[in-house]
């Protein structure tokens, strides 16, 4: 990793610096380092320091704006008043040369720059905080007198990076010097200093185009329409057609252009014409254009004191025993709440099925999977072991098309029956069916979920899942895979609610039933948690139910096209969005239903694409204990006042009023709760009633 070295030179005040061998060696050192991207920060004290800076100019160390800088120094040389020193500082900031005031003015200049933090002159942001040179340097043992140059190699200025385009993370090395940070390779006080590649190219662009005069250089970022134009009716081979369309994605229509906020107007005009975009699609960014690199940087080792403690998913209490997963499922339905509970049972469900000699068939839908998916490996192994394996791999999963094509081909080679999605529909449902031969006959085991079969994102996304061997759900699961493979289309379902043909009508019916209860003066309540809400018919039904008196609480992380607070229409509706360390991804639906409370979970949001253009599955939660646990999840999220934001009538979001209330962070609450529940079975396991007494020796 290249380092942008920042070196601070403490120059003495008073008698100042004189010409001599020390200066010559220092000039030589500066010249060598300046060729390797070093930024030098000079301490200006009295007359001697000004002479020193002029000496640097004379030998060509500062090759940008030399005359202006020299004139500024000459005008103010030998000054000792704070006001004149600050004037000199302001005049030289625009050159990108950081001048640190030393000597008797250090403390005052430090306070001035802190007060005017982020001072911008001539379009450049430089030096937001200053180290107190002479005072702090002496404390660190690097004393500068009028005959020597003392270099403080390991002292750097906090955030003194040009254009706000370099990122500094660090630990303070000396409590006495609160503005200094350490650059080094040691374990104590180590600092990571990152330089953005775009900034490096911008500063050295002249070396790439040697025969040209570089007028200006600025980074920009283009976002294109990534939708694939696939005529599925005409495509003879869907897989080949998608592969062909993927090559065209990089040339899709430009829908957004991000540029530096101070980009040269001539260059900006050229880009607007070339990309054919309007002013509405242009976004000026005062800083780095792409901050996604911060995720990778956050994952680097070290700096743990600046990071949120890593959460390790807890074990599932129902599975903390010696029995195999099929035996545990036969005991009763099992709720999985990720990432608070580990995703391992889902992986083990497929892995054990692949090895179990009594398993006859495995069927699964895959939308997005991880890069080195253990589930894919288990499915391939199951096929090699002679089991019937059917897998629907959705080739049209946006941005995962190439990965899914690779997995589909690999599964086919292993002997799996692979279905490449359905004509005109995306299969977004999350379902796994295992058919097993047992003493009592054929039994179906099913996993249903709200999130993808992705062991990586399962550590970051909040999702719910259900492991069950309910016979009616098993029949429905078989019907789902018969439908996906094109063998049949059931007229009705026992338990599951399936889109695109049946789900929307069922939700509208459930909302209408709550409205009827409210009109009769009975209690009526709806709680719905999802990613987005924008289906017109669902919103209209919610408005109608609210007007009738139904209490409606919505937990919607993303898009919400419903308006709250409309008199006589949506006064009984609340909307909250929870954005925390984990991505809220679960879909949960609660209906009071006249006291016979109904709870559903599934893969669908209340959006037209989910209800009308995708194969989605929503399933009921019928086990009373699990139903209470799911309602508990909704209850805690409704009480969240730390990470939640409340939608207002004007379309803005505000934080809840915390005054006099206990702080509730739902995600942290679930982390603690899952950990505590996982500890209880261990305590019970170790608690023995009959313990033989040990003989006394």
Rg estimate, integer Å: 33 Å
Structural class: alpha/beta
Q: Number of helical segments?
A: 21
Structural shape: globular
Measured as a percent range, the helix fraction is 25-40%
How much is the average pLDDT?
A: 75
SS elements, strand count: 31
- The percentage of residues in β strands lies in 15-25%
- Note poorly predicted spans: 1-193
Q: Which sheet architecture does the biggest sheet show?
A: 10 strands, mixed
| Straight-line N-to-C gap | 65 Å
Write the layout of secondary structure elements.
Elements: E1 6-10, H1 21-34, E2 39-44, H2 47-58, H3 66-76, H4 82-93, E3 99-101, H5 106-115, E4 120-121, E5 124-125, H6 133-139, E6 150-152, E7 156-157, E8 166-169, E9 180-181, E10 192-195, H7 197-203, H8 205-208, E11 220-224, H9 238-246, E12 254-260, H10 265-275, E13 282-285, H11 293-298, H12 325-331, E14 334-338, H13 344-355, E15 359-366, H14 374-384, E16 388-393, H15 401-414, E17 417-419, E18 426-427, E19 431-438, E20 441-449, E21 461-468, H16 471-484, E22 497-499, H17 503-519, E23 525-530, H18 536-547, E24 551-556, E25 573-578, E26 583-584, E27 587-591, E28 598-602, H19 608-612, E29 614-620, H20 624-639, E30 644-647, E31 653-654, H21 666-686
Parallel strand pairs: 1-2, 2-3, 12-13, 15-16, 16-17, 18-29, 21-26, 23-24, 24-25
Antiparallel strand pairs: 1-6, 4-5, 7-9, 8-10, 11-12, 14-21, 15-19, 19-20, 20-21, 22-29, 23-27, 25-30, 27-28, 28-29, 30-31
Helix pairs in contact: 2-3, 3-4, 13-14, 14-15, 17-18, 20-21
